[in-house]
């Protein structure tokens, strides 16, 4: 089997409503994964590109999140509307979407500046 050019891991972790860390898939539908799989298939990118469900990516405060490997890109605050753009610009075009990118300083850091500001009410919600 040939190596993937892109392997997209979509967090489908569920938590109870109101959990302090949030939840990437609150309704359990795995809708982002399904939309990515469909978009990849429609564009004839299989088998070089694969989208899979993942357990917790430990980026809960940035959710919904996904990781793209081997590039090591983490996107947060992803919506269904973002899917075509992710495929067009990142998967096909090789460009990072700055508005969705989880900054390296915020990866694995629930005390990231924007999260602290959001929790204190000093800033609007921002997924990056």
Describe the protein.
- The chain has helices at 31-42, 83-92, 113-120, and strands at residues 6-11, 49-54, 65-69, 73-76.
- With 128 residues, it is α+β, with helices and mostly antiparallel strands.
- Strands 2-1-3-4 form a four-stranded mixed beta sheet, covered by helices on one side.
- It starts with 5 loop residues before the first strand and ends in an 8-residue tail after the last helix.
- It is globular.
- The chain has a single domain, classed as 3-Layer(aba) Sandwich (Glutaredoxin).
Explain the layout of strands and helices.
Blueprint: E1 6-11, H1 31-42, E2 49-54, E3 65-69, E4 73-76, H2 83-92, H3 113-120
CATH architecture: 3-Layer(aba) Sandwich
Structural class: alpha+beta
Kindly report the average pLDDT value: 82
Count the strands? 4
Largest beta-sheet characterization = 4 strands, mixed
CATH class (first level) name: Alpha Beta
* Gyration radius from CA atoms, angstroms: 15 Å
The CATH superfamily label reads Glutaredoxin
Q: Which percent bin holds the helix content?
A: 10-25%
Shape: globular
Would you give the CATH topology? Glutaredoxin
First CA to last CA: what distance? 35 Å
Unreliable residue runs = 123-128
Question: Strand order across the biggest sheet?
Answer: 2-1-3-4
Strand content: 15-25%
Counting structural domains, the number is 1
- Count of alpha and pi helical runs: 3
Helix-strand string: EHEEEHH
């Amino acid at each position: 089997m040939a190596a993937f050019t892109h392997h997209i891991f979509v967090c489908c972790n569920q938590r109870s409503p109101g959990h302090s860390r949030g939840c990437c898939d609150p309704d359990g539908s795995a809708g982002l994964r399904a939309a990515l799989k469909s978009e990849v298939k429609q564009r004839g990118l299989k088998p070089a590109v694969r989208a899979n469900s993942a357990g917790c990516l430990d980026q809960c405060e940035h959710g919904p999140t996904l990781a793209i490997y081997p590039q090591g890109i983490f996107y947060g605050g992803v919506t269904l509307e973002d899917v075509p753009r992710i495929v067009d610009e990142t998967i096909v075009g090789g460009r990072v979407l700055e508005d969705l990118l989880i900054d390296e300083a915020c990866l694995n850091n629930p005390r990231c500046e924007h999260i602290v500001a959001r929790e204190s009410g000093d800033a609007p919600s921002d997924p990056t």
